[in-house]
Write a structure and sequence with these properties.
Chain lengths: ~70, ~260
């Protein structure tokens, strides 16, 4: 039981770390990109949109972090 | 070696270097305060556990996951990991967070080592053994994770392992010579650079991996292929510099 708890704690620290907003920003940006991909947009445009969305969501998460 | 291979070696080298320095700091603190025998025993057992972990994780990842799904999973993890470092680096550079200092870390570990009660089992000091084991194993798992993700996604495991091995060797030699934490290494700058690299490679692979949800199940292709990684590095660098400049204005009372 202690091992499982420790293992879970390790992955929590690894993924969530000091700021859960980063993980949420990444997952949200990728989810929106997936919607763009499945909407039938060209692959090139969808990948570029994914890159831009990741940048924007990261900015938003850091700004929210600093303002809170 | 191609430019992409050099990039892979440089990325795993830099990322692993930071983790090795942190592990070395912990082991040195235990060795100095509690005795080298127990600290080195903890390190050795951690290295054996790490080897088993690497073999199991590498085999599981490469055998069970389709390529696009592997890119999505490891890319996402790499991205989150890299952006956490980048966030810290941005906050430190903008004066909103204190700089990380290996000397301070060494001092606090040393103090904890001196205060802890002595408990011995089989001639090994339990405290020094456990702290060294945890330090080496946890930092080591991060190195293993970086090597596996970079190696598998770029389909060049030897280059990824090579970069990490050289970093480990250099840190080990420096530790043996200096017998003190490697405080002269600009760790914050190094973490900033590594954060940029991890975020860029992670973004590249995670977006490629979204192709697993399409009808073909094949990875998506970035325009310009591998060259897109350079564009991503430039993008992350640009927005991080913009954030360093503008974040203090959001919280002027904290900024220096």
């Amino acid at each position: 039981m202690r091992f499982i708890k420790g293992f879970g704690q390790f992955w929590y620290d690894f993924i969530i770390g000091n700021d859960w907003k980063i993980a949420v920003a990444v997952v949200a940006a990728l989810a929106v990109t997936l919607v763009v991909v499945l909407a039938g947009v060209s692959t090139a445009a969808a990948t570029v949109a994914g890159g831009v969305l990741l940048l924007l969501f990261f900015i938003a998460s850091v700004v929210i972090d600093v303002r809170s | 070696m191609t430019g992409a291979t050099w990039g892979l070696v440089a990325s795993t080298f830099a990322a692993s270097f930071v983790e090795f320095v942190e592990a070395l700091t912990i082991v040195l603190a235990m060795g100095v305060t509690r005795g080298w025998r127990s600290a080195l025993a903890g390190t050795l057992v951690a290295l054996v556990a790490l080897t088993a972990f690497t073999a199991a994780a590498g085999y599981a990842l490469s055998t069970w996951l389709p390529e696009a799904l592997l890119q999505l999973v490891v890319g996402t993890l790499l991205l989150i990991f890299g952006l956490q470092w980048l966030r810290k680096a941005v906050l430190r550079s903008s004066g909103l967070k204190a700089m990380h200092d290996e000397d301070e870390e060494f001092a606090s570990q040393t103090e904890a080592g001196r205060k802890a009660a002595a408990k011995s089992r089989f001639g090994i000091d339990t405290f020094a053994f456990v702290v060294s084991f945890k330090g080496v194993f946890l930092e080591g798992v991060e190195v293993v994770f970086i090597v596996i993700t970079f190696g598998l996604s770029a389909a060049n495991m030897p280059a990824a392992i090579g970069g990490a091995a050289v970093a480990g060797l250099l840190v080990l030699i420096a530790g043996l010579i200096l017998h003190r934490p490697l405080a002269m290494i600009p760790e914050n700058a190094l973490k900033y650079g590594v954060g940029l690299l991890l975020a860029s490679f992670g973004a590249y692979w995670a977006v490629e991996g979204l192709g697993v949800f399409t009808e073909s199940g094949e990875s998506l292709e970035w325009p310009g292929h591998d060259w897109a990684i350079l564009a991503l590095i430039a993008g992350w660098l640009l927005i991080s510099r913009v954030l360093v400049t503008f974040l203090p204005r959001l919280k002027p009372e904290v900024a220096r």
